[in-house]
């Protein structure tokens, strides 16, 4: 396995873990949708998954994660504008 492949695998695993952490936190009411940390976890998680899925030419999954990240960026920007 090359260094690039290892980096891509790490990005994918870290991305998956971050998205799952965000899901766990919101599902257990430890965070809510108005908290920036929830959206940052989703943004960085989606970016990691985008890297992995694009490298592996899994374009439908990449598409979903681009939208996922876009929604998180949009929501985060609305939260930050209100402050």
Automatic annotation (TrEMBL):
Alphabetized UniProt keyword annotations: Membrane, Transmembrane, Transmembrane helix
Name listed for the protein in its UniProt record: CBU-0592-like domain-containing protein
Superkingdom of origin: Bacteria
Domain CBU-0592-like, first and last residues per copy: 9-83
InterPro entries attached to this UniProt entry: CBU_0592-like (IPR058058)
Ranges that cross the membrane: 6-25, 37-55, 61-80
NCBIfam families the UniProt entry points to: CBU_0592_membra (NF047864)
